[in-house]
Write a structure and sequence with these properties.
binds zinc ion; three-stranded mixed β-sheet; 2 domains; 17% strand; alpha+beta; 155 residues; Dna Ligase, domain 1; Arc Repressor Mutant, subunit A
Amino acid sequence: MLSTEKIIDAMSEQGLRITDQRKTLAKLFGEHSGYLSAKDVYEFMGKKYSGLSFDTVYRNLRVMQELGVLEQIVFEDGVKFKASCSEDHHHHHMICLQCEKTYPISFCPVSMADTPDEFQVVKHKFEVFGYCKDCRQPADAGLSVNPLSGHTGEH
Ligand SMILES: [Zn+2]
Ligand SMILES: [Zn+2]
Ligand SMILES: [Zn+2]
């Protein structure tokens, strides 16, 4: 994961003005290993900058994602952001639905896709969701500890 300094460096190298707010965002993501929704970020930023609008926060997240310092993942409860990985080779992620720990996987499904000749691929996404060894439900556990139980009835 990119450190606060790496995030700031990457933003300034690509010509983004490093405002105090962007520095705070870089620090927030540089020190947080999990995923944050735009609302989480807005609530955090709102405590430090009074009168800050959700739009401003969201626009900054968007810019940071476009610059590649943040990764955006679509969870069932919405889009969340995390500092990009520091590994520079192409890879994908396995993400724990419980603790949101992220594991790199080198398998890339694109080479196996039957892409039509006339279709030009510019980007792709591939994420695998599940439970890590710490969050996995033991085979003999009762329903009371089923991590999915909290989600039933919502869909
Ligand atoms: Zn990664
Ligand atoms: Zn986990
Ligand atoms: Zn790939």
